[in-house]
Amino acid sequence: MPIRINRGETEEQFISRCIPIEIGAGKGEEQATAICYSIWENRNMNKSTQSIVNQKLKDISNKEELISPNPCQSGYIAIGLKPKGGRMVPNCVPEE
After folding, report:
1. 6 within domain boundaries
2. How many domains does the chain have?
3. Is residue 17 domain-resident?
4. Which of 7, 31, 36, 51 has CB atoms 3.0–4.6 Å from 18's, for a disulfide?
5. Phi and psi (nearest 5°) for 43?
6. What is the pTM of this model?
7. According to the model, what pLDDT value does residue 10 have?
8. Chain centroid offset of residue 56 CA
9. Domain range spanning residue 39?
10. Of residues 64, 75, 76, 78, the one with CA closest to residue 31
11. How far are the Cα atoms of 53, 56, 62 from residue 96, in angstroms, in the given order?
């Protein structure tokens, strides 16, 4: 379940609270950091934008597992994992 941003919480407060939670859930430090910044960057996504994103996710024909919350930068979604540098990282692909 995604971590919620508390009302009035600054970026620094949220990120410093979020990363240890994600690490505790079994994520590596880099992935936890990416997840937390992704949550922060998408905090203002309105319902109409969210519905467009949800429709695009439904349209993906690839049957690999989508990673949620999205650890990729804006404009990309994570579909499964890929090997990189001897470890597994999110496979970030363009949304369109």
Report:
1. no
2. 1
3. yes
4. 36
5. -65, -25
6. 0.48
7. 92
8. 16
9. 11-94
10. 78
11. 10, 8, 13
